[in-house]
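Data availability (excerpt). The following record was deposited with the supplementary files.
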Amino acid sequence: MPLFSSKDQTILCAMKRHQAFKFELKPDGEQQRIMRRFAGSCRFVFNKALALQLERREAGEKHLGYVAMCKSLTEWKAKPEMLWLTETPSQALQQALKNLERAYKNFFENRADFPRFKKKGRFDSFRYPQGFKLDQGNSRLFLPKLGWIGYRKSRDVLGEAKNVTVSSSCGKWFVSIQTERECEPSVPQGSAVGIVMGNTHFAALSDGRVIEPLDSFKKHEQRLARYQRAMRRRVKFSNNWKKAKVKVQRINADIGNTRRDFLHKTSSQISQNHAMMVIEDVRVNTVSTPVKGPHARPGKTGTQKARFNHSILDQGWFEFRRQIEYKSAWRGGYLVPVVPDPASRACPGCSRVANCEDPSQVRFACVECGYVEHADVVGAINLLRAGHARLACGEPTPLGRSMKQEPTEADDALVA
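Predicted structure:
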């Protein structure tokens, strides 16, 4: 039975692809000063609107929508003590209110925590929904009230630009251009594969491959701790403290950049070579939650649990699944999440379900037929079988929930 029907192929060909292209900006000193002011104004509007919503909530009044908040923004800009808000583009301030509205929506739909006030220096950003111009030939970008700014062009921007987000990280400014274009007609090629995430290794595939982890945080942990101790010894907000903070931020940025690069390369390779991917449906936030309260496990067991949580978060299980989702949807493939069950310990040779693994949890040795294989590879094979069974009972719909290439700093702030 084919994985995809002609109807599914028609739907996949008509899909629109939303992709973000991120580049480093090359502003001069005056433009950097203006961008810091724009980011501060957007942060002020966000925090003031959130404070107003909290006041209405405590008073038992109804939550204000985006349109009502825009009216309040007009009133704020008319006040003499807030005339400096008029120096920032109105669209950027309105986008800050939209970000707050989206943060509330994520909270009401149990996708994120309650919105929190923004801090200076964390996720500083502002967005232009329109009014910008892109000149790829000269590698420059026009932004309202900023003028033309050059950027480090690493690739061409494909599709129609919908909005532009300017953000700051580690003393550098970046631009994320979100585009939209029609998906190229393509029929999924390749085989199906099962993927099991591991602790000592990154992932095991049903075809026998075992992907070793990058352990980005673990490699920089000691150096990061050393600079953090040096930062604590400084007087807070002094010049030496700010210099030490920059060093800590750069190490954290290196950790995140290397992890994202590894996840993008791995997810791209898997999604390009396989038409269907079956993955464990695991909630990372539940698995990595530390045990607290009267049921906490002190001593060796608690330390092992903490190391297990650090390993999961360092490898980026959730981000890997998110990338697999949208990249498989881009290429017309399927991602089938399957809840793991005891059948994943069944022997692929004789289907015997028993405790037939050695204590190291690395080698699977069946006591019935003598089948020997990596334990997680066996789990991936059984996971693939469960995915085929689910597909035979009822074909899943293509996943198109996360279609952007990567979230911008502004989107990260909303989720946080």
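Summary of structural features: The chain has two domains: 16-184, 188-393.
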